[in-house]
TrEMBL record:
The protein's role, per its UniProt record: Ligates lysine onto the cytidine present at position 34 of the AUA codon-specific tRNA(Ile) that contains the anticodon CAU, in an ATP-dependent manner. Cytidine is converted to lysidine, thus changing the amino acid specificity of the tRNA from methionine to isoleucine.
Comment, domains: The N-terminal region contains the highly conserved SGGXDS motif, predicted to be a P-loop motif involved in ATP binding.
A Pfam family hit: ATP_bind_3
Similarity section: Belongs to the tRNA(Ile)-lysidine synthase family.
Protein name: tRNA(Ile)-lysidine synthase
Chain residues that bind ATP: 23-28
Domain tRNA(Ile)-lysidine synthase substrate-binding: 245-310
Gene (name only): tilS
HAMAP family: tRNA_Ile_lys_synt (MF_01161)
Length: 320
């Protein structure tokens, strides 16, 4: 994937027609225009109206006008991205945006659009890794964002993932293309914005190649995580699901942790904190008598002992 907008789009080959997730911001504007030029009549845009900011209506109007000019059909989806207690507002907005984009592809244009492109770029990838490090994330966090993946019958693409953020803005300026600046991008209350405003300039100075080297590390982490997932799948075949406690105990502690993480994620969309997982592993190790009970909070539910096995139960009031 080359490091210019034109180079990246030249080597991008999704199935057509293609949808572009279009916020109206710089990056998705560049992506939409470049794709619309490459595939006239074959590109659609989806804008998610978040309703979070008073400015959301004007974002939608801008997107509608820009799409009319480009001759690109636009679908607008409204979401209520209020976050649940304990959930970060950014996370809630991201989840509801992905759900809305999925619904748009399934319901608009007769279901003919199966591929969608997002406009995250190389700086976003570095920010994602630094954000993961700042939260003490494991390999899945450090693996950051994949360039391509499939879910719900849709293929998602990030064709600009190797293009530096400043190169995108330069391209827009050279091409005299307008975009809207989201005022929340300058809000220092968000960790991501602090990373962008303070850390990235320092990295640029100290390590001019930081985008490439961080991307290589993300690739290594993603590959290592793939191996761990393969081992976890094999181990879960042996323990069964939900996992049998005796079978789990035959594995090393690190493999137990790896298998339990995959079980919780794959079957219950639950992720255990480091402390919850450590407690669960201690309890599994101590579980040597019939009467030993286990009940540990994990994510939005509990892991408990049920006979010879672990079982997961959702908290009665929890929603995903
Ligand atoms: N409201 C939205 N509607 C449709 N797609 C969106 C919206 N917000 C973000 N996206 C898509 O998700 C990608 C990542 O979103 P993120 O919030 O990280 O970036 P962004 O700063 O909004 O990007 P951009 O510069 O394109 O506005 C965007 O590049 C865009 O493709």
């Amino acid at each position: 994937m080359p490091s210019t907008v034109t180079g990246a789009i030249a080597s991008f080959s999704p199935a057509l027609p293609l949808a572009v997730a279009y916020s109206g911001g710089a990056d998705s504007t560049a992506l939409l225009v470049a794709c619309a030029r490459k595939w006239p009549g074959q590109v659609r845009a989806v804008h998610v109206h978040h309703g979070l900011q008073a400015a959301a209506d004007s974002f939608e109007q801008h997107c509608a006008a820009a799409c009319r000019q480009l001759g690109v059909p636009l679908a607008v989806r409204r979401v209520d991205a209020r976050h649940a207690p304990g959930q970060s507002p950014e996370d809630a907005a991201r989840r509801s945006r992905y759900a809305a984009l999925t619904a748009a592809l399934q319901q608009e244009w007769g279901g003919a659009v199966k591929d969608i492109a997002l406009a995250q770029h190389a700086d976003d990838q570095v920010e994602t890794m630094l954000l993961a490090l700042s939260r003490g994330a494991g390999l899945p966090g450090l693996a950051a964002m994949p360039a391509r993946w499939q879910r719900d019958g849709i293929t998602w693409h990030r064709p600009l993932l190797k293009v530096p953020g400043p190169a995108i803005r330069q391209w827009l300026a050279d091409e005299k293309i307008a975009w809207i600046e989201d005022p929340t991008n300058a809000d220092d209350a968000f960790t991501r914005n602090r990373i962008r405003a303070r850390l990235l300039p320092a990295l640029e100075q100290a390590f001019p190649q930081f985008r490439e080297t961080f991307a290589r590390s993300a690739g290594h982490a993603a590959q290592a995580q793939q191996v761990l997932d393969e081992i976890a799948r094999q181990d879960l075949e042996r323990t069964g699901t939900p996992p049998a406690i005796k079978q789990l105990q035959t594995l090393s502690t690190a493999r137990q942790a790896n298998a339990l993480r995959l079980w919780l994620r794959r079957e219950h969309q639950a992720s255990a904190s480091a402390a919850q997982l450590a407690e669960l592993l201690d309890q599994v190790a101590a579980c040597t008598t019939r009467g030993h009970a286990i009940r540990i909070k994990v994510g939005h539910g509990f892991v408990q002992r049920q006979g010879d096995r672990l079982a997961w139960a959702m908290e009665p009031s929890a929603t995903l």
